[in-house]
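tokens incoming
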């Protein structure tokens, strides 16, 4: 690898206000790549209100230059639309932001080795004078004919796991002939660590409130466990999203309000404490996902893992070695695994200890980002 540091611009309009894996993970990577000696800049939107996550990132990374672009006043209504419900909302923002960024790019021709994007429609607005690398997080839910046009713009693709790479190639066969080196996202094992606390929460879910995350399967499993008379304190659900009100209505309708607590998104430091408060992390995502970051964070904190044996999860989760895995959307099997881990502390400890070792040896962000830097450098050298 060339020892020359990289000059990277990360083009991501949603960084500044939206809290999701496609925002948090690239910010963590940006911070780590910067600490490795690379020169990182970010281009994002100036929203009506910045997220706490973004504000924390800016405070903790003063060495990273933040370039803000404000959408024209008559486009500000975009922020009133609830994100996550309709994919066209992201495409609309990509277009409006990309058009607004035209002068910014003209004024900075030749400044960066690479421009990194995290959404296909964002790539369309990166001028051809720049090398554009598209990071792929997850697999689209369906084929879109115009995406075949968009796919002609990126100069390279870096999926975050093998499942994501294979999913894109299945939807768009023209990508089968394209080199797509995989780079896992990783987790900061120095931040997400076992604090050796008493774990008072039996079950934990952290993530967006989306159906594909398996949230209703978790709640159905809770009902099964409760109906069997198994003693447990609660399921803590941390996050928000389009299904939030439906989830609350489901909890009330099924009379499990005494067993389920919901709290909104919290800071990274507070999240470490939440993971350490929990015995068992439940993340049975069943569609589109790569290797979910909250699963890696929980594993890094010594929380026992239950996940689904689908999407990118098996690339980390090995059944009965570092986790328990279930078939997708199988709430009965999920309930059995939750009961098994709840009642067997030794087995729980074995799984969590093995998972932490795997994180340290392969999944730590310092390790994964060195690999990512090598991939980026290879694109520059081409």
């Amino acid at each position: 690898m060339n020892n020359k540091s990289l000059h990277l611009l990360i083009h991501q309009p949603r960084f500044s206000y939206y809290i999701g894996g496609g925002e948090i993970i690239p910010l963590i990577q940006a911070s780590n790549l910067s600490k490795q000696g690379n020169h990182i800049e970010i281009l994002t939107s100036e929203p009506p209100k910045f997220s706490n996550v973004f504000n924390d990132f800016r405070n903790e990374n003063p060495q990273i230059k933040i370039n803000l672009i404000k959408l024209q006043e008559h486009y500000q209504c975009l922020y009133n639309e609830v994100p996550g419900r309709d994919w066209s909302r992201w495409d609309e923002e990509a277009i409006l932001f990309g058009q607004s960024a035209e002068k910014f790019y003209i004024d900075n021709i030749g400044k960066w080795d690479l421009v990194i994007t995290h959404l296909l429609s964002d790539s369309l607005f990166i001028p051809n004078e720049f090398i554009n690398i598209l990071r792929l997080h997850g697999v689209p839910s369906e084929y879109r004919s115009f995406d075949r046009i968009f796919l002609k713009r990126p100069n390279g693709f870096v999926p975050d796991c093998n499942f994501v790479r294979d999913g894109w190639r299945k939807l768009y066969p023209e990508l089968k002939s394209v080199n797509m080196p995989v780079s896992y996202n990783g987790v900061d094992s120095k931040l997400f660590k076992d604090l050796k606390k008493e774990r008072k929460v039996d079950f934990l879910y952290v993530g967006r409130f989306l159906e594909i995350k398996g949230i209703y399967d978790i709640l159905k499993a809770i009902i099964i466990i409760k109906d069997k008379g198994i003693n447990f304190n609660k399921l803590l659900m941390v996050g928000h999203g389009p299904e939030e009100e439906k989830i609350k209505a489901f909890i009330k309708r099924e009379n499990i309000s005494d067993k389920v607590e919901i709290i909104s998104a919290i800071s990274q430091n507070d999240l470490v404490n939440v993971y350490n408060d929990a015995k068992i992390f439940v993340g049975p995502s069943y569609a589109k996902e790569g290797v979910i970051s909250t699963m890696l964070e929980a594993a890094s904190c010594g929380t026992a893992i239950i996940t689904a044996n689908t999407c990118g999860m098996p690339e980390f989760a090995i059944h009965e070695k570092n986790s328990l895995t279930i078939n997708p959307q199988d709430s009965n099997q999920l309930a059995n695994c939750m009961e098994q881990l709840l009642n067997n502390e030794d087995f729980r400890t074995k799984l969590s200890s093995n998972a932490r070792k795997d994180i340290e040896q392969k999944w730590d962000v310092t390790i994964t980002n060195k690999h990512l830097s090598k991939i980026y450098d290879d694109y520059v050298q081409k």
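note: The chain has two domains: 7-186+364-381, 201-363.
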